[in-house]
Specification:
15 strands, elongated, three-stranded antiparallel sheet, disordered N terminus, six-stranded mixed sheet, alpha+beta, 41% strand
Length: 185
């Protein structure tokens, strides 16, 4: 692992990783104390303390399901990797706020609290659910392809428009919801 400056004062670290592409690949690890994330005209920007800047960045989780609170990636305006932040909790308050807003937009996943009804017509399944964002209708086809089991009782259902809905713990749903799910899954 090579770094610019000392480990404690480096604005970023560079990790060389073997890749199948002959072009070299560098992974920048951002030091949360040396970066600032802010908006300019509504567009998120990233600036390093050593005056390196990206005028437009996208924010994404490296592990959105298994470790959503760590390993935040930044992509430049062309979708290329700018770098990785290991712990966004160490950012200054304003930067953290911008990062949180961007992640909330990107990973909008309502949590299903109750299943009100499920019906199937011609291979399409219509769910009426109550979520933490209000009552929603979920239209899904082929549950085998659109239902992802994350743990024994945690699932994510993807609708026909690509929206995702999380069932964090099927065992904690009320009895009526559990019965509806058992009959339809």
């Amino acid at each position: 692992m090579s770094q610019s400056g000392t480990e404690s004062s480096a604005a970023l670290a560079t990790v060389e990783m073997p890749v199948t592409d002959p072009a070299s690949f560098e992974l920048r690890i951002f030091d949360p104390k040396k970066i600032r994330v802010f908006r300019h005209g509504g567009v998120p920007r990233l600036t390093l303390q050593d005056d390196r800047s990206w005028v437009k960045v996208s924010v994404a989780r490296a592990f959105p399901l298994s470790d959503p609170n760590h390993y935040i990636g930044f992509l430049d305006g062309n979708g290329k990797d700018a770098g990785l932040l290991l712990d966004p909790g160490l950012l200054d308050g304003d930067s953290r706020h911008v990062v949180d807003e961007e992640l909330e937009k990107r990973y909008f996943v309502p949590v299903v609290e109750r299943v009100l009804s499920v019906k199937e017509e011609f291979g399409t399944i219509y769910w009426i659910v109550e979520t933490d964002r209000g009552e929603k209708e979920i239209i899904a086809r082929n549950l085998r392809d659109n239902l992802m089991e994350l743990a024994s009782s945690r699932v994510i259902l993807t609708d026909v428009d690509g929206n995702r809905f999380e069932f964090p713990d099927l065992n904690k749903l009320d009895n009526k919801s559990q019965n509806i799910i058992i009959r339809n899954l």
